[in-house]
Design a protein that fits this description.
Number of helices: 3
Number of strands: 13
Shape: rod-shaped
CATH class of the largest domain: Mainly Beta
Largest sheet: 8 strands, antiparallel
Length: 233
């Protein structure tokens, strides 16, 4: 009797266990499906919102170069154009701006202004600069221009060369010997040798061999130091 009862219990338990498993698996399957559906719905809705907010701008922006690149490109193009104009084809020689010194090496002995002339033993306004140099030292044109005069008729001034640079500007070189073949009307370049320093002579011979240099602006003397960089080399 007892064994029969146990068999009946076992028989009853088996259907109950299968039913529980079925319900449990079904519940888990439904839950998983629900989670998947909710996840897909969230992803889709988020994508729609982003696309609507961006208005498709993300794709459009990626096809356009950044604004900074546009500007940089324009600037580089301009610079390259300038370099091409100066560097392509013919070589352009860039000359120093402004006047150069009248000699390769200079040593200033007399300034512009109040001056005691030891040769004449007198005081007066010195209208130029005196650069000490050995006789034979090359004298250079401080700027391009045209030889206006080569004056030799006054023993006190010795030989004097005047260059007209245009726009009312002239340079004067005194106590020199003109370069061979140099004549009035010749065009000279900046830095071209126009003369050499002569032996001490004229109204300043006691100062030794030197170049007396003047600048005229619209017919009036001006301090050459305002146009030259006075540095001993």
């Amino acid at each position: 009797m007892k064994e029969q009862n146990e068999k009946e219990k076992k028989i009853r338990k088996k259907p109950m266990n299968k039913e529980k498993r079925f319900y449990l698996l079904t519940a888990l399957g439904c839950a998983a499906a629900l989670i998947a559906i909710v996840t897909v719905a969230i992803v889709v809705s988020t994508g729609d919102v982003n696309q609507a907010g961006n208005g498709g701008g993300t794709n459009n922006e990626s096809t356009l170069p950044p604004a900074s690149n546009d500007n940089g490109g324009n600037e580089n193009s301009g610079n390259n154009g300038e370099q091409g104009n100066t560097g392509g084809g013919e070589q352009v020689v860039v000359k120093p701006e402004g006047m150069i010194m009248p000699m390769e090496t200079v040593s200033l002995i007399n300034d512009y202004g109040f001056y005691h002339n030891k040769t004449l033993n007198s005081y007066y306004e010195h209208v130029g600069l005196d650069f000490s140099a050995e006789a034979g030292t090359q004298v250079l044109a401080v700027e391009e221009g045209t030889i206006e005069s080569i004056y030799k008729d006054d023993l006190l001034t010795g030989t004097e060369i005047v260059i007209d640079h245009g726009d009312g500007l002239k340079s004067v070189y005194r106590f020199v010997t003109e370069a061979e073949g140099l004549k009035v009307g010749d065009s000279v370049e900046k830095g071209e040798v126009i003369a050499t320093v002569a032996e001490a002579n004229g109204s300043e011979y006691k100062d030794g061999a030197h170049l007396h240099f003047e600048i005229l602006e619209n017919g009036k003397n001006v301090d050459p130091a305002t146009l030259l960089t006075l540095e001993e080399k």
